[in-house]
Amino acid sequence: MLTVDLGDRSYPIYIQAGALSDSDLYRKHLSGSQAIVVTTERVAPLYLEQLKNALDPATQVSTVVLPDGEEHKSLAVLEQIYDVALKAGHNRTTTILALGGGVVGDMAGFAAASYQRGVPFIQIPTTLLAQVDSSVGGKTGVNHPLGKNMIGAFYQPQAVLIDTKVLASLPPREYAAGLAEVIKYGLICDQEFYDWLQARSESLAARDSVVLEEAIERSCDCKARVVAADEKEAGLRAILNLGHTFAHAIESAQGYGVWLHGEAVAAGMVLALRLSISKGYLDATALAPLLEWLRAVNLPVEPPQDIAVERWLELMRRDKKAVNGKLRLVLLRRIGEAFLTDEVSEEELRAFLGEHATAGIAE
Amino acid sequence: MLTVDLGDRSYPIYIQAGALSDSDLYRKHLSGSQAIVVTTERVAPLYLEQLKNALDPATQVSTVVLPDGEEHKSLAVLEQIYDVALKAGHNRTTTILALGGGVVGDMAGFAAASYQRGVPFIQIPTTLLAQVDSSVGGKTGVNHPLGKNMIGAFYQPQAVLIDTKVLASLPPREYAAGLAEVIKYGLICDQEFYDWLQARSESLAARDSVVLEEAIERSCDCKARVVAADEKEAGLRAILNLGHTFAHAIESAQGYGVWLHGEAVAAGMVLALRLSISKGYLDATALAPLLEWLRAVNLPVEPPQDIAVERWLELMRRDKKAVNGKLRLVLLRRIGEAFLTDEVSEEELRAFLGEHATAGIAE
């Protein structure tokens, strides 16, 4: 068990096979006599009954089954959660249980942050990406047609239950998307972890449960430490966003759901490394092994080639890290050490994008 | 100047004629170079220019003019704020300025709580009700068709600017509605303040500026102390809701905007006093002077008579103070001392509502 250390908002992360159906965990972290399970059409048939059976039979349980996909992470779909909660008479002592991937966790978390001005919630992530990233740290929210995660709150869960068994059922594309975030932790947090991961890339790709459990634990540990140091992203926390300014632009440009978030992050990280190298921060030898590794797990190493440079810039300017109109980017100084900088001028970025992020890219 | 004492979320309340156009106050509390003024169709022609002229000319200012009225305090209208903010490129360093009554303050506050996971905001209340009540304490949110303020957040402003000059332009009905909340503070906080107010009821009704300023200051002081002791309404803060469980039911039953919130609170407080008396908590002599006072300022002392008892109960059960399905009500032990209780059974409440809150009410 890890702990996210945030004073009176601290909470545990349980990483164990079977966590999803462990009654003791729910008994420990569900304080009222009501619960709302938020899940999706794809996840419900797999795990909803298991979860419900693990709850105290005296609990009044409502269920909200949302459509799958980033394109449904909207205010309109969020309203379905409020509707169910109010119709079934859930009050401020209810607990919202987020059962699913990152989209469900973000939406259920924001519903918890805003229903009756805040009710408790528990994250039960069922994708690798949600397990290592979105379920930890309290970022919740929905997309706006003009930008990703533009409406939301910092709102911490009561607990995160990571059941490593569920990863066996994950479609290959989703699994690979999660690996992108695992690799990210190596890049930003810890060269030794990065090397460890790379040495085990085949076991990881084969979903070896022992290697995977350790990879998840070390990823969550990195995230928990960064979040504890900077809960609301005043500075340091931004490093968790390596590649994400590019990734959000890709997702917005392509339409939510066309690229998986982790896929966009993979391509975005490559751009962040290229830019770090071209700015002279990072040694050029860092790039090739990463490209090889990402390709081996079928992750994209290039952005879509149909985004014009000005469109890139327009989308990137909407990034939440921007301050008074000035873009800030996360770059690498070396493997294991990321930093936030505003020292990339618009001209430099324009030239960089022209070279590496539109049709005719030379590698 | 008063202070709401909440540790690192503490903030000042300025109560002064001309606060709205005091450049120094904005310079002090606006940290970035962007601002979004949220106001309404009725308030904009009166005060929007004054406010804008008081801002640093270098500030990028966007304006959102919402329709007036509680019936527009909805998620759909809230989206207009996000739309304007994103189209104009406001980032996480922007400040939202809420210029208007309680509806604007609640909506702009929730927009601030949720835009890019939270941006600073400043309350500039232009109604008496907003000045003494809704602008202080960080309750923000919107209504849901199934209940008032069901979607929202506890989110504190950077400052509250109360310009007592603006009250001169307030329509009589709005002014009276604000007086209901002022009287509430006397009832829940301080018998001496209650007596002081009652002795000055004519000056208050005539909007005497000296009396009014003191009444606002003492009301805000009561509210600030209660909020400091219990920011998120774990217990004590609920006393600020005297009469509000009844009032919210009235507003829901009649349709938002038919009764003003303060009018519903007046009728709701009378019901709370009647119930306090019938339960033996409060001396019966407390009622008649309050009824006389409310009538003198044209506030309703009876709820609408067309709500059936079962409908009352259904609406009251949605109250956010309810715990595990059990209603909790704020009652009075004496003038100046309120308390939260769950010792009113559903049967008692049913009998009470049958007698006092539907057609045929005997006084």
Fold topology:
The structure is a homodimer of 363-residue chains.
Chain A: E1 2-4, E2 11-15, H1 23-29, E3 34-40, H2 44-54, E4 60-66, H3 75-87, E5 95-100, H4 102-114, E6 121-125, H5 128-134, E7 139-144, E8 147-154, E9 159-162, H6 172-189, H7 191-199, H8 201-205, H9 209-229, H10 244-254, H11 261-278, H12 287-296, H13 309-317, E10 329-334, E11 337-341, H14 346-356
Calculate the mean pLDDT score of chain A and round it: 94
How many domains of chain A? Answer: 2
CATH homologous superfamily classification of the largest domain in chain A: Dehydroquinate synthase-like - alpha domain
- CATH C-level name of the largest domain in chain A: Mainly Alpha
The CATH topology of the largest domain in chain A: Dehydroquinate synthase-like, alpha domain
Numbering strands along the chain, what is their spatial order in the largest sheet of chain A?
1-2-9-6-5-3-4
Number of helices of chain A: 14
Run of helices and strands of chain A: EEHEHEHEHEHEEEHHHHHHHHEEH
Q: How many strands, which pairing sense, and closed or not: the largest β-sheet of chain A?
A: 7 strands, mixed
CATH architecture term of the largest domain in chain A = Up-down Bundle
Radius of gyration of chain A (CA) equals 20 Å
What is the terminal-to-terminal distance of chain A? 43 Å
Oligomer: homodimer
